[in-house]
Design brief:
Blueprint (H helix, E strand, L loop, with lengths): L10 H17 L24 H9 L6 E3 L19 E3 L10 H18 L3
Antiparallel strand pairs: 1-2
Helix pairs in contact: 1-2, 2-3
């Protein structure tokens, strides 16, 4: 694994780090995993999707595979205690990023994930 460390004190620097280091990882054949909200979000709560993933996809032309899950119900936000239970994960369709803006990409990913999370067991 080669994580992309970001500077949370500066959103401009963090987006640049994601774009630059993300493109490097993709060129080396790595998959880049991005949590679009930037943090865990409590079940049934919504947080704005950040543009870093969309910016990386726009810059690199990489395809996106969105993932939806309900892990938050067993691993609550601000808690290291995990409850026993079953987590459901849904792998989405491959989404093309070519000829799309970062905003369009982010919106497409957000729409699929939020719709799908709403269909998962709570």
């Amino acid at each position: 694994m080669q994580p992309i460390a970001i500077n949370r004190d500066s959103s401009i620097k963090s987006f640049k780090q994601i774009a630059d280091q993300g493109c490097e990882r993709l060129e080396k054949g790595y998959w880049v995993i991005i949590f679009p909200e930037g943090t865990r979000v409590a079940p049934n709560k919504k947080k704005k999707y950040l543009p870093g993933g969309g910016m990386l996809a726009e810059k690199s032309g990489a395809r996106i595979v969105p993932v939806a899950h309900n892990a938050g119900r067993l691993w609550p936000r601000n808690s290291m205690i995990k409850k026993p239970g079953l987590i459901t994960i849904k792998i989405g369709p491959v989404m093309e990023s070519k000829n799309k803006t970062a905003k369009e990409i982010t919106n497409n990913v957000e729409n699929w994930i939020e719709k799908t999370v709403g269909e998962l067991p709570s």
